[in-house]
């Protein structure tokens, strides 16, 4: 097939509306164009300009009332039930993927007439196909840089089992860059193949069965799919082949001949590509899949090697005279973030630049300057350290240089199957609650704590970093406690708008109702984030305000953690705990885990890089004697009395909601019977091997110990092979420490059973 019918060909931001209507590959319906302008999707996206309509969907340029920018909204017009299911499930899965070089899904929903829609970020710029047509082949150095960005996006897709299947220049958009460096984004996931549903199923969600692509049926764009496309199921080599074709076309202006590779320097001598790039593209276009570049990760690594090897031959680019831009970490409507090297200070930094669109907006310039001011005023391990900034509102290109943080965005841990165990979640929660407490102590409200602006690193120590404070609000306390060379008088204290934050999911109910933000509104946002990273689900079903107990979804969740989440998500801000109280609650949850681990003979949960509080240390070291226990109860009672501050009655926790779908937890396996010792005169023949499921039960106790090491429920996938009496694979689904995976493998290696048919299945083990 040709171009996917539900994605517009991107055009330059300066293209006039009349030209926009005639973008390549589209047919506009004039009557629909007149009727749809002004229509509101999901009370958020207001149609400004229909881009086009295809057989299954229509696409519109919309004003995003929440983010005060533009969005491209695809509206599905096909009533076929299977098409609707595919659109709904895939859009929700892809909405959780975040990569700086992949178009971002902003929201999904239904229109008033029941049609499904998906809102994507609007990309001002042009496709590489359009650039190729207008200006001819690109310089090979630039092609290498852009292709490396695309390879990075493909690697992120492949890591979660998604094959793009339509990589080509018209699906790569080059956007306007604040730094003047080439930046692209991969678009059009309309025919993407989802291979790995295990992560979705791990959350208790079972997708409706879908039809596999029939053997012999070709999906994709002619010239960009590999020779075996009609013979096998899609795999990452489909995308590496298409990326090879794309590089060849961008460098030469022509398609490669399938099966007969002709060097690019022969086709177009002026391209002057290096032998290393020639060899890489030739390998990507190999006829036999086994001879081809196997993964996008390998493709990206080889491109980076080529770029580095010839860096000395290229003209150096230094931003502001000292910052060497290395790679894009994030590109949004308001700013761009780069991993950069500060040559004068000889260190790596995160360099944030105000986007071209935001530079023209006075409020965004003031907000950018305020972000630097906040980072300068607050020091906390979970907040990036300010290194340098130039944020004057009259500066041509404002920037902020911060300490470089490690980790993945929190949104990657909100997908069921990739969620955090209780120990890691508590470590993350303690650090973020501490950061909020530090901000609030200085009179700063964050207001925008969400899955995209937090990095989590599960290395030797679990760490969390709140990387964006661009929507922070300054209260009167800030001006009273933060040292200022030139104090700001009350009449000069600017009150900036909220940017539509009231309409976003992570916003506290009182702020959504227009009652404004308080410090406790930030706590609600953190509670929502922690709940989603623990369970992979939202805490409320439908319009209900009753929280579903996390213990029904994650049975290993400590009760103190459950209580902390209930208090943090209390609908009434007067009854909700503040950041310091949340930190204390998480300390109690950690102590509960350590006590349970001690009772089970397992090691204590680590603090994940956070410094224990005095209260935590004291509780951990207390002897377990009756006298101490009574003393602890008296102290707890005194704390509770101080908490309620003399109220006549103590507040009541909100009730739990009953989940609409139950999570089935396998019953605990019985203790294995002791092995009988045969008598010397007994038969020499060994006893027959047990059936596979019965044999698995004998290792249940050991696998539950593995779960205790992970700090929560453990989802283990087992694989058998015909004729084998052992498991050929046993792996933990989702992020985990190496010791947990090793524990599972050792437990599985000890199991022998009667050979069975090839199969793959998963079991849940609780501590």
TrEMBL record:
<feature type="domain" description="Protein kinase">
    <location>
        <begin position="323"/>
        <end position="590"/>
    </location>
</feature>
<keyword id="KW-0418">Kinase</keyword>
<keyword id="KW-1133">Transmembrane helix</keyword>
<feature type="binding site">
    <location>
        <position position="74"/>
    </location>
    <ligand>
        <name>ATP</name>
    </ligand>
</feature>
<keyword id="KW-0547">Nucleotide-binding</keyword>
<keyword id="KW-0472">Membrane</keyword>
<feature type="domain" description="Protein kinase">
    <location>
        <begin position="45"/>
        <end position="318"/>
    </location>
</feature>
<dbReference type="Pfam" id="PF00069">
    <property type="entry name" value="Pkinase"/>
</dbReference>
<keyword id="KW-0808">Transferase</keyword>
<dbReference type="GO" id="GO:0016301">
    <property type="term" value="F:kinase activity"/>
</dbReference>
<dbReference type="InterPro" id="IPR017441">
    <property type="entry name" value="Protein_kinase_ATP_BS"/>
</dbReference>
<dbReference type="InterPro" id="IPR000719">
    <property type="entry name" value="Prot_kinase_dom"/>
</dbReference>
<keyword id="KW-0067">ATP-binding</keyword>
<keyword id="KW-0812">Transmembrane</keyword>
<feature type="transmembrane region" description="Helical">
    <location>
        <begin position="626"/>
        <end position="644"/>
    </location>
</feature>
<dbReference type="InterPro" id="IPR011009">
    <property type="entry name" value="Kinase-like_dom_sf"/>
</dbReference>
<protein>
    <submittedName>
        <fullName>Serine/threonine-protein kinase</fullName>
    </submittedName>
</protein>
